[in-house]
Amino acid sequence: MDRQNTIGSAVSVTGIGLHTGAPVSVRLLPARANWGIVFRRSDLEGFEIEAQARNVARVSYATSLMKRGVLISTTEHLLSALVASGVDNVVVEIDNLELPIMDGSAEPFVHMIEAVGVRPQRARRRYAKVLKPVEVVDGDKRIAVYPSDSFRISYRISFPHPLIADQSFEFSPTPARYAVEVAPARTFGFVDEIEMLRKNGLIRGGSRENAVVLTRDGVMNTLRFPDEFCRHKVLDLIGDLALLGHPLIGHVVADRAGHAMHFALVSSLLRDRSAWAVVSSDELQPAKAQIVVGTGAARAVGAR
Ligand SMILES: [Zn+2]
Question: Is 259 a catalytic residue?
Fold first, then answer.
């Protein structure tokens, strides 16, 4: 049976925020079953913000949470590492408003979780099983989710840049596959955009140490995968889907999407409760009773 997990023990890491450039330390703490993922601002008397769609504030260049005026910014890479590693219940304590960017990927967070391990809990895991297609379209951007027996992602991006052009990536997440194929993929940006972002007070902590920087026809870093860009979109999507509050059972198909589209899909699902159901793992396998009855009966069913 599929149980909920927390982490084996407390673990911490330090870094700087991508947008604020401010130093920040993060401490993950084990939490009880059915607790979920909850951020805690240790610099604000332990103020807590649940990683839930209702607390999402901004989704332009990062996914930020806000509750009663308190902000937690750039949550998606840590959320991605947590849910993809199978962590359901954890307290994420931070002493500033933005999560550290680390190397621009989720790999340092995966290593942090691996260092203490995941610990199974008594409670069953509950999934959001998609029952009918849900689609969001915005110009040439599209994201949809379809019923499926497992969680799968098909992601496609298209940028007018020789190193990106058209890329697609198919992914059926397991913790081991995520750690190798998706977690190391770094965030990326175009050198032309950097000035505009800086003017808007963003990416003050950004550098080639924590992002893949694309020039007009090249790249300032060594790529970790030829399709690192598309893999990073998959990483972001997994983190943004965590805001649904349950692991998803469905096939997500994304075309030129981003944080805003990812969150639009989460919002559409939350608005249409007929499109999905909360099920535990032993309810996921459909009963096949009609196939195991006598052959005569099966033939009779087939003949109708
Ligand atoms: Zn990202």
Answer: yes
